[in-house]
Amino acid sequence: MFFFRNTYFRLVFLAVVIYFLHRYAPTPVKYPRTESSKYYTNVYHGAEIMDEYQWLEDENSKKTKAWIQKQNSFTDSYFRRIPFRKKIEKRLKELWDYPTQSLPFMKGDRIYFYKNTGLQNQSVLYVKDNVDTPDSLASIVIDPNTFSKDGTISLSGIYFSNDNRYLGYATSNSGSDWKEFHIKDLKNNKVLNDNLKWIKFSGMSWVEDGFYYSTFPKPVDGKEYSQSNEGSQIFYHKLGTKQSEDRLIYSDLKNPKISNYASTTSDGRYLLIYRTKGTYGNSLLIKDLNKNDEKFITIVSDFKSEVSVIDEVNGSLLVMTDRGAPNKKIVLIDPKFPTEKKWKTIVPEKRFPLDHG
Q: Of 63, 60, 53, 57, whose CA–CA distance to 220 is shortest?
């Protein structure tokens, strides 16, 4: 009896599945044709490789733009035929429509946090004077939803000055790696005229009344999103000046494929230059900013290991590295004696990897 009952329910379930599969059977579609071309070939390690679709890499060509238009039209037409699309949209909005708030963080004596009322495209940065101030009385610092009417400009980073008076923030258009830097005076609640463009893969490393940043040369018109990332340089921007007046700090035009990134120790004493060739390994240069004529000191010159400065301690640098230690270790480096033989091990390599220092 149990067998027959199970068989009956299985048949009923199968019939229901077949009914809905038939009712919502996939609509046959005809995809836009993508032309292949035997014109493009590349040579890798002596072998000639044909790339039939390399023509699509030129996003500014009329041919590529026409292809993109056909793909978008095809996708939109398919989505419009989904009978329950509005129901899905309505239900998703119901699920998303609830307030969220980030963990608070302190800068100086003030408390900051992000908040989203529910359906805002981007969370808003708020500030309040102390823990006793209700969140409802917090003031808006930055509302990314006001950057553009269509919501395509987003907040991609914030950077407080060392005295917490100024807030540098980066904006990005349509998810691009290119950023613009802006500065807000938190004391007067005003955005300054300082506006830096064509920034990529960089934050702001504040020192006194300005900051260090890295960037690439302005791309050729029409190549904003396809030009290779070469020739990165490090500049110093002083508040109240134009970007064209920024002081060049470091450049290596002989090795344009090496990327350079700037950082500073928490006390602003040392400028740190990280250099990378790829996804793993970096070299490290440092400069004592307390000495006007100080030249860069090389800590690591090759790219065979990861070397990251944690901070400055009594004139020396506390560094985490996997150099000679795959699971990583923490060492103390005296800039006066930077050779690896003089490094002092503070936390030796352990059985399990060191995740953070």
A: 60
Does 17 score more than 70 pLDDT?
A: no
CA atoms within 13 A on the CB side of 263: 14
User: What secondary structure letter does DSSP report for 352?
Assistant: S
Q: Region of 267 please: left (phi>0), alpha (psi -120 to 50) or beta.
A: alpha
DSSP symbol at 174: T
173 vs 197: CA distance, rounded Å? 12
Q: Is 350 exposed, middle or buried (0-12, 13-18, 19+ CB in 10 A)?
A: exposed
Q: Which residue has the higher pLDDT, 48 or 344?
A: 344
Structure tokens at 218: 């302005």
All residues at 6 or more sequence positions from 193 whose CB lies less than 8 Å from its CB, including other chains: 240
Measure the CA dihedral 250/253/257/258, to 10°.
-30
Distance of CA 153 to the CA centre of its chain: 14
Question: Residue range 284-305: average pLDDT?
Answer: 93
Tokens of 352: 């399990």
Sheet holding 329-333, edge to edge: 307-313, 316-321, 329-333, 344-347
Q: Which helix (H) or strand (E) holds 23?
A: helix 2-23
Q: Is the pTM of this model over 0.85?
A: no
DSSP code string of 92-122? HHHHH-S-EEPPPEEETTEEEEEEE-SS-SS
Give dist(CA 118, CA 97) in Å, integer.
Answer: 4
Q: Phi and psi at residue 139, in whole multiples of 5°?
A: -100, 150
pLDDT digits (tens, 9 = 90+) for 248-263: 999 999 999 999 999 9
Chain mean pLDDT for the chain: 91
Q: What backbone phi and psi angles, to 5 degrees, belong to 238? A: -100, 135
**Partners of 341 in the β-ladder:** none
**Which pLDDT score is estimated for 260?**
97
Q: Do 303 and 281 touch, CB atoms closer than 8 A?
A: yes
